[in-house]
Amino acid sequence: MKQRMKVRERLSYEVVVRDKLGKVLERIVAPSRSYVSAWNQCLYVLNRHSSFTITDTGGTSHSISYSSSVLRANAGAGEIGYGIRIGKGTTPVTINDYALEAPCGEGTGPDQFLHQATSASSPAVAGPDCSFWLRRVMVNNIGSTISGIREIGCYVMMKYSPAYYGLGYHDVLPGPVSVPDGGSITVTYTLKVTV
Amino acid sequence: MRNRAGLWYSVTVRDRDGKVISWERRRAHSFLKQWNEFIWFFHFGGNIYPKIINGSPTKLDSHDNNFLMTGGEGDASLGIVIGTDDTPVAIDNYAMGAQIPEGFGAGQMHHLANTFGAPAVSPPVSGYSISRIIVNNSGGLITVRESGIYHQHSYRYGPVAYQFYFYSSCGVRDVFAVPQDVPDGGSITVNYTLQVTE
Fold this sequence. Notes:
- The complex is a heterodimer.
- By secondary structure, chain A is mostly beta strands.
- Chain A is 6% helix and 48% strand.
- Chain A contains one helix and 13 strands.
- The model of chain A is unreliable at 1-7 (pLDDT under 50).
- By secondary structure, chain B is mostly beta strands.
- Chain B has one domain (5-197).
- Helix content of chain B is 6%, strand content 45%.
- In chain B, strand 1 and strand 2 form a beta hairpin.
- Chain B starts with a strand and ends with a strand.
- The model of chain B has no long low-confidence stretch (mean pLDDT 93).
- At the A-B interface, strand 1, strand 3, helix 1, strand 10 and strand 13 of A face strand 1, helix 1, strand 5, strand 6 and strand 9 of B.
């Protein structure tokens, strides 16, 4: 008997680029390429109630213990340690990725964006699915177009103090995206479970 | 189409001499609504009321014990649990259909401690496992038709920061492809593996 294959815990993303007037210039919707190993390691820490050595977004390994801060992604405006991030890296995603390859910073300097607060919907059931989304708007105020945006992802908190952050999921876009001066890029990830 | 975050389970039934008499392994059917509500809470920490296993929506509060699955020997309130019901899984299930209680009497089984396999990366996969042996010393055969995972749910009452009630929520439930008969003196071992794939 051929077993029906379904994706049980699905992740997908939407990327929307707008100009300074809010007009949509580009929209990309696709299944996410991947959760990466730190995501699963954080779940293990919570489920097992133990410590585990996990690589942070700076490439340094830390012993992470269970706490209420693990997996937190509700970053505020200007906070780029965690929450949704974008970057210019093009290397395909691997399970061992621990950070975006070339993340864009916060600010109004070259290749920098003004990161707005991460927002989220409440979990909702529709048929066999339960899903929610998280979203972040990043605004380009550097005075010129930022081109070559090619990767997105979500950093999660692993420890509050001292603060350590890990990469939860990471995707490389099918092609480069350009964000005009005064415009914005909005990244929305949807996390869904299905029976 | 690849599976990005998958859950697998295996079930092994042994007789009183340890001989394997039945085995099943397949993709788990279901993370439930509560699973995603907990993930949401870990991400954002807002107000949410997942159902606990008696069906009551109960506020989830921030606590280090949330999502804990380490039920010890004799504790059938956390970790892997089993039951006798075969009603198909629905996204809003909040408990086993008919959980087999802890004990040595008729219809009861003895739950050993949950054990964990640490996360391991073998590209393109990263996974970890949780296992439990549950022994039938009831004096008769018990047919097991479902399994699942219960995890801790913390609710803070009153204004005092550290006054908590701890409940169980059901994050995962599966109905076996084949009902598993566990003879008296025998055991059933349930293993769940949670893996993500690049």
